[in-house]
Specification:
Layout: H1 2-14, E1 25-38, E2 41-50, E3 58-66, E4 82-87, E5 92-96, E6 105-127, E7 130-138, E8 146-151, E9 155-160, E10 166-174, E11 179-187, E12 192-196, H2 197-200, E13 209-216, E14 224-232, E15 235-238, H3 250-271, E16 286-290, E17 297-299, E18 304-308, H4 309-314, H5 319-338, H6 347-361, H7 368-380, H8 400-416, H9 418-431
Parallel strand pairs: 16-18
Antiparallel strand pairs: 1-2, 1-6, 2-5, 2-6, 3-4, 3-6, 6-7, 8-13, 9-12, 9-14, 10-11, 10-13, 14-15, 17-18
Helix pairs in contact: 1-3, 1-9, 3-5, 3-6, 5-6, 5-7, 6-8, 7-8
Length: about 450
């Protein structure tokens, strides 16, 4: 237990640096880009990335694609369709298009990073060499629906993220909630289309003001990328993101959690004094996201960690619960590499404990491990939902409740150590200020938050 307490002390000094700004992600999607044009009207696109991590360098690849979905060699300083670069801890990187085309080129961009980044795209309109306006939009994620305020001349960008043809419906809704028109946009594989609303729904009155809704036309689970730009009397302005907060893109959620845990692994392993194991790169561990319609996750001695989309969907409301599941499998990878367990003699309990400490180091809530196991226990008795040998266990159901109790007890014991009390106190004051004082990682609240409706009750 002493080395667990030492790890918590180390984690306490760095865990707050693992909490990411809202919207930071390892997969960043930019549904629109524009470059070039006549001298009278030119566009320039800039991509700005910020690495909020206090100590690790981010490795990033940015790919640009044309309206057809094919790679686009947009000149961002390197003249290639894929730009690879690094961003130092708490540093930033800006890539700006060179306005190299005599006609306006449009498309979209995708970036992938090994650390969560803030990503922003800037669009600058230039007339006769003089910048007129610049608008920005944050990187986004795929969604099955999109909502946006709208006027008649609303600008819309849409991307089909699939390698087959897809169609999407755009519906215009008046301010009183009634539908005033709709149309269908068909997109080829990975294709992009940008337009102003009258081009799609020419019957809209000039005075239209309301909203639009974008949705798939056939499979309601199809996702897409979208972005809107307000246009009113020659004035343009950005609009708030319109994708749904939930349901989420599970592929992107799994990728985010996995990358954050890998980034925290060196600190965790060092804090525990574990040698003979490494989780830092593709050479030692590989993520496999599987679409089999069964709830399962497992690790292999070869370094493969498989997470089924069905498991993510079971715990889709909680990144921390997913982090525990992924961290548990990474614990098995460490066991395979060392040929023995790390903290406890029982392999499953040991992987639970390692996963809990790893997620704490990565900025996730270790209490979520109990939620993961409870949800797995809930579906264990339903035929066809949980894999018969979930995580390669012959009888997974029989161990869930025991493992929940064990995690709580070890967490309480670790936080009771004097060397770890400061770290636990620091964490609980931010994450669990209203928990009972007898629970680990908790502290009495310093007061009630402001209630904006208090005076009206």
């Amino acid at each position: 237990m002493l080395r667990i307490a030492v790890l918590l002390m180390v984690v306490g000094s760095v865990c707050f640096g693992q909490f990411d700004p809202e919207g930071a992600h390892v997969n960043l999607y930019f549904p629109h880009l524009a470059d070039g044009g006549t001298v009278a009207q030119q566009w320039q696109t800039s991509f700005v990335f910020v690495n909020p991590h206090p100590s690790l360098t981010a490795h990033v690849a940015l790919g640009t694609y044309g309206d057809s979905g094919q790679p686009l060699s947009l000149n961002l300083g390197y003249g290639a369709s894929v730009q690879s670069f690094t961003i130092p801890p708490q540093g930033s990187k800006t890539l700006r298009s060179a306005i190299a085309s005599a006609t306006t080129i449009t498309g979209y961009a995708l970036a992938a990073s090994d650390l969560p980044l803030q990503g922003t795209v800037l669009f600058r309109a230039i007339a006769n060499g003089v910048p007129q306006v610049e608008v920005s939009a944050a990187a986004t994620l795929p969604s099955p629906y999109y909502y946006s305020p709208a006027t008649r001349d609303l600008g819309v960008a849409l991307v089909n993220i699939y390698s087959v043809n897809k169609s999407f419906q755009i519906s215009a809704v008046a301010a009183n909630g009634t539908s005033v028109g709709s149309a269908t946009v068909s997109l080829g594989p990975l294709a992009h289309k940008s337009f102003n609303l009258p081009q799609l729904i020419p019957s809209l009155p000039a005075s239209f003001s309301g909203s639009i809704q974008i949705s798939p036309t056939s499979n309601l689970t199809d996702q897409f990328l979208a972005w809107t730009l307000n246009s009113d009397r020659s004035l343009i302005a950005t609009l708030p993101p319109g994708r749904l907060a939930w349901p989420i893109s599970h592929y992107d959620r799994i990728s985010l959690v996995y990358r954050k845990l890998l980034a925290a692994a060196p600190t965790t392993l060092a804090g525990l004094g574990i040698t003979g194991a490494s989780l830092i790169d593709f050479a030692t561990v590989t993520l496999a996201i599987n679409s089999d319609a069964v709830i399962n996750a497992f690790a292999r001695p070869s370094g493969v960690v498989q997470i089924n989309l069905a498991l993510s969907q079971l715990i889709s409301d909680s990144p921390s619960e997913l982090a525990f599941a992924v961290g548990h499998e990474l614990g098995h990878i460490v066991q395979f590499q060392r040929g023995k367990t790390t903290l406890l003699p029982n392999a499953e309990q040991d992987a639970d404990m390692f996963g809990m400490l790893l997620m704490l180091s990565a900025g996730f809530d270790p209490y979520a491990g109990a939620g993961t196991l409870a949800k797995l226990s809930m579906v264990a008795g339903q035929a066809g939902l949980l894999a018969a040998a979930f995580d390669d266990l012959v009888d997974p159901h029989g161990s869930f409740n025991t493992r929940i109790d064990l995690m709580y007890n070890i967490l309480a014991l670790a936080c009771a150590q004097p060397v770890a009390s400061g770290a636990c106190g620091q964490y609980r004051s931010l994450i669990h200020p209203n928990f009972p004082v007898t629970t680990p990682l908790s502290l009495p609240s310093s007061g009630e938050p402001l209630d904006p409706l208090r005076s009206t009750r």
